[in-house]
Write a structure and sequence with these properties.
Layout lengths: L1 H6 L9 H11 L5 E6 L3 E2 L2 E2 L3 E11 L2 E5 L14 E6 H5 L2 E2 L25 E2 L2 H4 L6 E11 L2 E9 L6 E7 L10 H14 L7 E7 L3 H8 L3 H6 E7 L8 E4 L7 H12 L4 E4 L9 H5 L5 E5 L18 H20 L2 E4 L29 H12 L7 E2 H8 L3 H13 L3 E3 L1
Parallel strand pairs: 7-8, 11-12, 11-13, 13-16, 14-15
Antiparallel strand pairs: 1-10, 2-3, 4-5, 4-9, 6-9, 10-12, 14-16, 17-18, 17-19
Length: 424
């Protein structure tokens, strides 16, 4: 909560003084590695925006300030250009944005951060102010300070016995709001803090960056070998409100941390919702997925204050943050205790060959054989092993085929004795 209190009010635009202040603050919480990407670097059309801070932002009529955009970090549209001049009310309204859900809220206008080559000036303000603007002439002054931007990404690694890595991700930008992005960061910080003195099999990495563009430049900057060490990840976002936890699945069908996460939620007796990829939200998850890294999300989305000034410390419940931490630590416990299945062959093995003797014959109905449900599940397990294209937990395999982990391991151990797989 102290971190939230300190960082929420900052203008944490993608490249800004406020974002740099947040980076410096968090480096005193954990010994992060700061990855700095200069504005000169581009990748796949992604352009790092300039460093941008608002110095003055006023709307004045008849010598009276009607609106001061510096009263809240969301009061000026992201990457607004500077502007000074007189405009009519009609022209002014072309540059004003309000929240269509809440008359008294300021909306989050962020799109220019992703298209810094085409920008305009503008304000975000409550609709109740917008509606009360009288006809006439207004003086507008927006003065911003810009310089070459540096994209900053925070990375903290907890090294385990294996190079196999689980990523926790979060967004450190999102100007002036508490729940969206920042609560995921503080939950990730607490999880990593508790793992610091613990010996683990997996390695765990916390990556905090500006939304979307930060994940793209982080992944693009990794070597192929380093990316291949990342098995999967969980993006943490919007975890401070009272509503149920929401799990969003990966695009991939089998993800070890998904089954571990469900296991932890059930063991803690917590209500939760779960749905397929893109059923709730899409932030950085799709960036990681497109680098062939399965990325779940854990959130409490949706909530009514999303993308507005109402997303403040007032809606954050500390118990909700603690609950998310406990769920993730229980997920880690589940991952750490389930053996990993690693395939050691390509193609398909003739399992009926006496050399292997692993074939599960579930019979032929046409010949009068009856099928038992248990045997069908074991046959499904037999067919699954050759299709494994990445290390996966025995727990995930067991849940996928509908067998207990014990039954699954009994059969997989036979594969291991034949040199076809490793169980770590």
């Amino acid at each position: 909560m102290q971190i939230l209190e300190q960082l929420t009010p900052l203008n944490r635009a993608v490249c800004s003084l406020g974002y740099d202040q947040a980076v410096d603050y968090l480096c005193n919480v954990l010994p992060f590695r700061v990855i700095s990407v200069p504005q000169s670097r581009q990748h796949n059309g992604w352009v790092i925006p300039p460093s941008w801070d608002v110095e003055v932002a006023r709307i004045i009529k008849d010598g009276r300030t009607v609106y001061d955009g510096t009263d809240h970090p969301l009061g000026v549209i992201g990457l607004s250009t500077s502007f000074s001049g007189s405009v009519s009310r009609e022209e002014l309204r072309h540059h004003l944005y309000y929240d269509h859900r809440h008359d008294d809220a300021i909306p989050f206008h962020y799109r220019q951060f992703f298209r810094s080559w085409s920008r305009d000036w503008g304000f975000c303000l409550p609709k109740q102010i917008y509606d009360k603007l009288d006809a006439g002439t207004y003086q507008v002054e927006i003065r911003t300070k810009e310089s070459p931007g540096t994209l900053k990404i925070l990375e903290y690694k907890h090294r385990g016995a294996w190079d196999f890595t689980i990523v926790l991700g979060g967004n450190l930008d999102h100007t002036g709001v508490a729940n969206d992005g920042l609560t995921g960061c503080v939950v990730g910080l607490e999880v990593m803090h508790r793992l610091r003195e613990r010996k683990t099999k997996f390695s765990y990495v916390l990556v905090l960056s500006p939304g979307i563009i930060g994940s793209e430049f982080y992944l693009a900057g990794l070597s192929t070998a380093n990316r291949e060490q990342i098995l999967e990840g969980i993006f943490l976002e919007m975890l401070g409100t009272e509503n149920w936890l929401a799990v969003q699945e990966s695009r991939r069908g089998m993800v070890s941390s998904l089954f571990a996460l469900k296991d932890s939620l059930l063991s803690l007796g917590l209500p939760y919702s779960i749905g397929p990829f893109e059923n709730a939200l899409v932030n950085d998850e799709y960036i990681w997925e497109n680098y062939r890294i399965p990325m779940l999300s854990l959130s409490r989305f949706p909530y009514p204050e999303y993308h507005s000034s109402k997303d403040s410390l007032a809606i954050i419940k500390e118990d909700s943050l603690h609950e998310a931490v406990e769920v993730l630590l229980a997920m880690v416990n589940s991952l750490e205790t389930s053996p990993m299945v690693i395939k050691k062959f390509d193609g398909n093995v003739c399992l009926s060959n006496p050399q292997y003797d692993l074939y599960v014959d579930y019979g032929q109905i046409a010949l009068g054989d009856t099928h038992s449900d248990k045997r069908l599940r074991k046959r499904r397990l037999m067919d699954l092993v050759p299709a494994l294209d990445r290390p996966i937990s025995a727990k995930a395999v067991a849940d996928h085929v509908g067998l207990s982990e014990t039954e699954t391991l009994q059969y997989l151990e036979l594969w291991e004795t034949k040199g076809l797989i490793d169980l770590l």
